[in-house]
Design brief:
Layout (H helix, E strand, L loop, with lengths): L15 H9 L2 E2 L4 H5 L12 E2 L2 H4 L2 H6 L3 H15 L7 H17 L9 H12 L11 H15 L1 H8 L5 H18 L16 H27 L9
Antiparallel strand pairs: 1-2
């Protein structure tokens, strides 16, 4: 097994050496400096990178959830270049760009922070199925960190099924249900139209306030009952 590493000149993969290396290997990973300096780590260009054996080396859940990933990222890169001209964008294009930003943020990885394959499946499934669409981009890492912790604490058996290659309808439904419950607890930052949700109207804030109001009401009722149960004191003689 050989792992050739070459440096392209100005990112040109059609030159003599890159094309010859590509022709004799089972795939290539193209790292792009522009992506690296824009904060994408690892800086993999998904449009040029190819694996001819990767699908067979993956477990079934990963192949299923990652099928749409490359297409959506490619569409995002194309539209991202187009959007830089500042022209008016329709709602579908804006939705594709918003989804792409969250996908890129999902794939960013810190040093010495590996994830198991079952964790990757859940995270990618959440990103490609719209569970991040109403979460601010800068909160995506927080979302994923909390999601992984929740899955280990409440759905460890489900993660074991995924690790074992189970991706039947029942497993997918269980993952979907777990994600919906987590999103409800995590709360939304954007409404369905993509506009910021006011803090006073946020679902997680509203739920907390409702709980506090209910607790305050219960306390008032208990105080009233205690007051009513106490016998009236007789007036002291003059």
């Amino acid at each position: 097994t050989a792992l050739p590493i070459i440096e392209t000149q100005a990112g040109d993969v059609s030159a003599y050496i890159p094309t010859n290396v590509i022709s004799i290997t089972d795939g290539q990973i193209f790292l792009e400096p522009k992506l690296f300096f824009s904060g994408v780590r690892p800086a993999i260009n998904v449009g040029i990178s190819v694996s001819r054996v990767g699908g067979n080396a993956q477990i079934k859940p990963m192949k299923k959830v990652a099928g749409r990933l490359k297409l959506e990222l490619s569409q995002y890169r194309d539209l991202e270049a187009f959007a830089q001209f500042g022209s008016d964008l329709d709602s579908d294009t804006q939705a594709t760009l918003a989804r792409g930003e969250r996908l890129v943020k999902t794939l960013n990885q810190n040093e010495r922070a590996p994830m198991t394959v079952e964790e990757q499946v859940v995270v990618v499934y959440a990103a490609t199925n719209g569970f991040l669409d109403r979460v601010n981009v800068d909160r995506v890492p927080e979302f994923h960190e909390g999601l992984v912790q929740r899955m280990h604490s409440e759905n460890a058996d489900l993660l074991e099924k995924i690790a074992g290659g189970d991706w039947e309808d029942g497993t997918v439904e269980a993952v979907d249900k777990a994600l919906k419950e987590y999103v409800d607890d995590f709360g939304y930052d954007l409404d369905e139209d993509g506009a910021p949700v006011d803090a006073a109207d946020s679902e997680r804030v509203t739920d907390r306030q409702d709980g506090e109001d209910a607790g305050s009401q219960d306390s008032d009722e208990e105080a009233a009952e205690e007051g009513a149960s106490e016998p009236e004191k007789e007036a002291a003689p003059a």
